[in-house]
Amino acid sequence: MLLRKLTRIALWTLAALAIVLTAAFLWLRQSPYWAGITLFSESHRVENFRDMGRVFPFREVPRGESIWAFEQAPHPLPETYAFDGQSRDLTAFLARTQTTGLLVVHRGAITHEEYRLGADETSPFTSWSAAKSVLSALIGIAVEEGHIASIRDPIGQYVPSLAGSGYADVPIEDALTMSSGVDFDEDYDNPRSDINMLFFRSMAMSTPIEESIAELHSIRAPGQFNEYISTDTMALGLVLEAATGMPVAEYLSSRLWGPMGAEADATWSTDRTGREIVLCCLNATLRDFARFGRLYLEAGARDALQIVPAGWVRASVNPTAPHLQPGDNPLSDWTFGYGYKWWIPEDPQGDFVAIGIWGQYIYVDPSREVVIVKTSADPDFDDNDHESIAAFRAIARAVAGE
């Protein structure tokens, strides 16, 4: 009798637990947290990357009244490109890297435009870390306008909340070049890494990202070693906001997005306090990302309107310090060189590129007057950056008639 009674209690307990778990799961599926939980899952990744408003809150980045138009001059892509001593098929590469959009511009004319995996020309693709290059442009504009006195000023001078952190005495310039010396783990494969916990704390616990950055400490003097850590860019976003007195999205809209002639409004994802996550997550059309690349191709100018200072553009993509040089470099944690939030590929040819995880690129080749934008959902993105540059260089050569 006692055994049957205990069995019934156990069964009712399990049934109640199953009901509770089912209800919790159904609630979670309808909550704003579900998109974040499934952000990188294979079944949701492509859709999420072109609809980040489902995942994060955001600020609007309104376009201006005048659109910087592209002409049309169709030109076929090359069938192959050379990489690692082999001739490789470009179409296969685009499929293998889960390309969602590819746009090629030569001398202000679109020569190739294609969309895949459900995207089209209106899709607001997320930039991931390619947004860092946009943030760099805004810093350059703020310096030109006098909001920032010098890029050798320490970050703590502008952001008192970081006065006790590893960023307090880091010059703005060293954060621009990912050389802060601050200790931060950028391992996306480790669920408890600093970068993943930064997002978890900000989105699940509503902890302001500023508070997380204030807890970081230095492990080396700034300006000596190039180590990619995204909080360098977040610290710069705080500098920009404090110096201009404007939210970053508003400053972007008024100083760059509108004057540049974007054809669509953009959005910038925020934490739950409403502050832009400037280390990533600017969401815009392929053509508008291409306009930003074209702006750097044209030394920061749209026709006669200088938007980003020409000197800033040159300094951003022509690093001189030893630890920022491309190639095998004991003073850097990667083989690409680094400027003010722009990457310099190996075997320098004057080209430079903004890169975001999962295969987002804004590639600029000034010598051939080519801009290439590629958006992707590539799970092997870390292994494909060098091959992507090889493909882009082949496309640029073909479009330029070489």
TrEMBL record:
The chain crosses the membrane at residues 9-28. Keywords: Membrane, Transmembrane, Transmembrane helix. The keyword Membrane applies. This is CubicO group peptidase (Beta-lactamase class C family). Coiled coil: none annotated. InterPro entries: Beta-lactam-related, Beta-lactam/transpept-like, Diverse_Enzym_Activities. It comes from Roseinatronobacter thiooxidans. It comes from the Bacteria. Pfam families: Beta-lactamase. Signal peptide: none annotated. Residues 95-381 form the Beta-lactamase-related domain.
